[in-house]
Amino acid sequence: MGMQLSCKRAFLPIILALGTLPLAAASTWAAPQILSVASTDLKMPMECEGADCSVELTAICLQEHRGSPNPGTAYYVHGDRHLILTGMTPAGQEISLDHLALKIESARGHNAIRVGFRKNELKKYGPLTVQISVPENITIVPMPFANDIHPQTDEDIALATGPLRELAAKLVDQDTGKRGAAELINQAINRLPLQGRASDETRAATKARYDEIVRGSGFSSPAQDNANAVIGECYDRTAAGSLTFRQCLGSWHDRLIGKLNTKYWKALETGS
Q1: What is the pTM of this model?
Q2: What is the mean predicted confidence (pLDDT) over 184-202?
């Protein structure tokens, strides 16, 4: 049996190392955690690099005793709810893109997921600015795979997408401080290159756009204060060196969400 990491013990270096195991070994693992996706108050930009367009969103694990997903683990949205994808033309016309087939995968353990599609899907529309919104109570379930030694059963899925997701909504989606701060940080993360260092111009433009968004966002003061502190520290800290602006923001995002995950598990253990 392959090593599994619980919600409380998801160490990134170990995850990255496990990601290098042969496919034959990985195919005998147990299914990882079902995740909730935090709702968004603002639309999140989807940026295109190369042949793909993607966005990073906030997630939290719902099943303490299952393993944390390796980066790239495939998921699907459970039930009849869906992520809302829209495109905006240069003339300001909004186009629904909900028909596009979205690829959903874990980005950093259970704290962040990546949602994307192939860029050529936009070809027939011409130039578009693409954004995504997350409605309330979105839950994603890992795609089943062959030789799963501990698959997600119908009962597992019903529990996670029902009462456990309701508790997560109460403690995560409605936390206007940490969840709101994580959403604001994602506004900056998703304007930076997925790979490599951003240019000085891109860094400055991302921070300026973030400042503009915060001023008109309507988020609570705790959310703004938390996010502003992270943006300021990461912007200064990554002016030089190997750590990128995006990596720094991702690390702080995960710390905030980790605290919410702990809050969720304590409530679940006490039955509150």
Answers
A1: 0.87
A2: 96
